[in-house]
Amino acid sequence: MIQVLGLSSRPRKDLPPAVDDVSFEACAGRVTALLGTPGAGRTTVLRLMLELEPGLGVTHFKGRPLHEIPQPAREVGTLLGDVPGHPARTVRGHLRMLCAATGVPVRRADELLEGVGLVSLREERLGSLSHGLDRRLGLACALLADPHTLVLDEPAAGLSAREARWLHGVLRAHAERGGTVLFTTGDSKEAAHHADRVVAMNEGKVLADLAAADFARTRLRPRVAVRSPHAARLAALLTKEARTERRSLEVVREEANRLSVYGSTCADVGEAAFRHGILVHQLADEVGDTGCAPEPEARSEPALSRADGTRRSGSERTGAVRPRTEARSAVTESAQARPTAPAPATRTPGAGAPGAG
Questions:
Q1: pLDDT in tens, 3-31
Q2: 13, 83, 184, 246: least buried by Cβ within 10 Å?
Q3: Which fold has domain 2-216?
Q4: pTM for the complete prediction?
């Protein structure tokens, strides 16, 4: 388990710190995504966690900061940026060097080469590797000493869809064996689909910390934002009309006077409010995508149904197919979408020292 407590970087002259009082947890047996746009502070958070740069706060790995762990390479495997090493060194030679540095039997290098699919390229030079092969080698470095925890900075960035699925399959398999996985990404869909929990950052601060299912439900679909002093009445009317007209609609009560309406338009919602004489203070189209604004963990219900009478979830309306979980709110109750990770590829356990990847 990782516990990040009050991490802050040093101020930068007249600029605010890149990271300001960041706290979150990444649980064992789960995959956690640290989400944010470039400049949000994701990489700085990892560097502070791994004590690679000075700052305030502390990070505990299974209850201890990294400098108090006798053999940190056996506890935390990391991948930060490209694999560091002389460009003329071979793939196999690089892994063998790390084996010697971390006290791992040299045969471990060959086991990991097979596990990450680099056996046929073991004599390739580091300088000649493509980005995808570099990611595979970096993952092998992180897994070298069989760590409990993996900390990876954008491990799937620049990979093809097939390579990304393979990589996330390895991470999922590691978590299912009881390990802790934390990775950063700038892609909200990647975070929602492959993680169990999403921690969203913006401008150095944590703005949302949600289960992936809640993140996908509240952030990844177009919606109409409505504010009205009669929000509960409007929600009931919209739901009733959608059922009568056999339209697929979902109304989420976000706050006492705020609704999010999925599967409709500003025009339709505004006309319904006008017909029933309901005062509206705000009516706007929104798209939840990057998680840049914290929202309550809203609960909801699809107002309806296909023509055959079976219910249709919000994930089906956006084309994503996910399992469904039951939820209940003051407005409705519904089946909600939960992203499903791909079946993991064959995984070879192992690890790399902090900074080795």
A1: 999 999 998 777 889 999 999 999 999 99
A2: 13
A3: Rossmann fold (3.40.50)
A4: 0.65
